[in-house]
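[Automated response] Your request has been received and processed.

Submitted sequence:
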Amino acid sequence: MRIIVAGGTGVIGRSMLPKLVKDGHEVFAMTKDSKCDEFLKGLGVTPVQADALDNNAVLAAFQKVQPEVVIHQLTSLGSVNLEDNAKIRVVGTRNLVDASKAVGVKKIIAQSLAFTYEPGDTPATEDVSLDFEAPNPRKINVDGVASLESAAAELPEYVILRYGLLYGPGTWYEKDGMVGQQVLKGQVKARDSVTSFLHVEDAAKAAVEALKWPSGPINVVDDEPASGKEWLSVFAAVIGAPEPKKEDGSERGERGASNKKAKTEYGWQPLYPTWRSGFEQSLKNS
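Generated structure:
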C-alpha cells in the first residue's frame, strides 16, 4: 500500500516506519522541513515536506503522493503546552482529513489518548464517554481529542488508537526525559491516580497492525493500570532516583483504561505487557 505518515520522525514514527517498509509498503513521511530527509531515505522512506498546519501545503503533498492510507502520529511534545497539542489535533487533523477526501484516501489511522475518559472507578473501555464536562486545563486535552476523533471518522475507514501514557526512548518517561528529571529531583509525589502505560514500541506495533483493524476507537495500553503509589517507586528505582514521597488523592479522570478489546477481538499482544518489567527492560540504561 501507498502510505503517508504524518509525524513519522517522532518517537513512535521512528519505530513504526521500518516496520511498514519491512512489510513491503511504499512509505512516505510528511515532515515540516528537510532536516530528517537523509534519515528517512536511509530507512527506505520518501520524505515529503509540508507543515501540517498549512492546509494548502498538506493538500499539495497528498496530491503528489496519492496515498491509499494516512497514519496520523502528529504531536507537539517538545514542551508542556496543551494549547499547541490541541492545535495539532484540531487544525492538523482537519487538514489531513480534508486532503484525504480530496485525493480519495479510504483509511486513516490516528493517534489519540486513553486518558481523556469521563471519571469512573474502573479502567475505561471504549464505550465510555470522553470527559466533556472536564474543567480547564483538562478540557483543552479532551476537546482536542474529540475534534481529532470526529474528523477522522469522516473517512470511510478510520482507526482511532487511544494510546496509554508513553514510556521508553525519546519520551518524557526515561531518565533524561522531563518526568524522569523531575523524579530524580524528588519533585513528583506518588498519588492514588491510576495510569495506563504503553511502551513506544507497542504504540508503533499497534499502528502497523491497525492497517487490518476495523473502524472505531481502540484502547492501546498495557495489561496493568496502576496507581502512582505502585508504579512511581519502581520507575524511580530503575532510573536511580530517591524513593518518592506518597500523597493521598488523584486528579479528575485518572482511572486507566482496559485493553481487553484490543487483545481479545483484534489479537493485539503488547511486547511489554506491564510497566513492571517494561521499565526495567527499556529504561535501565537510558
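Summary generated for your ticket: Residues 2-164+200-221+257-270 form a domain with the Rossmann fold fold (CATH 3.40.50.720). The CA atoms of residues 48 and 61 lie 7 Å apart.
If you did not submit this request, please reply to this message.
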